[in-house]
Amino acid sequence: MHTRFIGLFIITTTARPFGIWRDWVFKKFKISNEDKGIKPYLVDTLAYLSFEMPLYITNLTISGASLEQMIKSILFFAFIAGMVGRPYGIYRNFIRCRIFKLNSSL
Fold it and tell me: Annotated Gene Ontology MF terms (predicted)?
């Protein structure tokens, strides 16, 4: 439960920085919101993993996870990120553009 509360705090406070990071990664790889296929999937997954993994490791460390628990959790997190990285990026862009009426910088 302790880990979940820390995670909730981390997710809430890092939402905007992650959006900025994702935009930057997309610009570096020259990806637009209209791009389809494997490249945007891989870039979204890379952006998600490269931003969230260090936060996740920090959360596990603060929560007192053992090395074995951390390794298992990190491997599982990487596996899940491969499935949710792109859908999460699409969802974030939808919220940004359609709900908050913010222009995407991509």
Answer: L-amino acid efflux transmembrane transporter activity
Counting Cβ atoms within 10 Å, is residue 59 exposed (0-12), middle (13-18) or buried (19+)? Answer: buried
Q: Report yes or no on 106 lying in a domain.
A: no
The residues, any chain, with a CB within 8 Å of residue 105's CB and separated by 6 or more, are: 23, 27
Query: Rounded CA gap, 3 and 16, in Å?
Result: 21
Could you tell me the pTM of the whole model? 0.75
Count Cα atoms within 13 angstroms, Cβ side, for 85: 24
Gyration radius of the chain's alpha carbons: 15
Domain range for 94 is 1-100
For residue 28, is it within any domain? yes
Integer distance in angstroms from the first to the last C-alpha of the chain? 37
Tens-place pLDDT, residues 43-54: 999 999 999 899
SS3 83: helix
In a domain, 105, yes or no: no
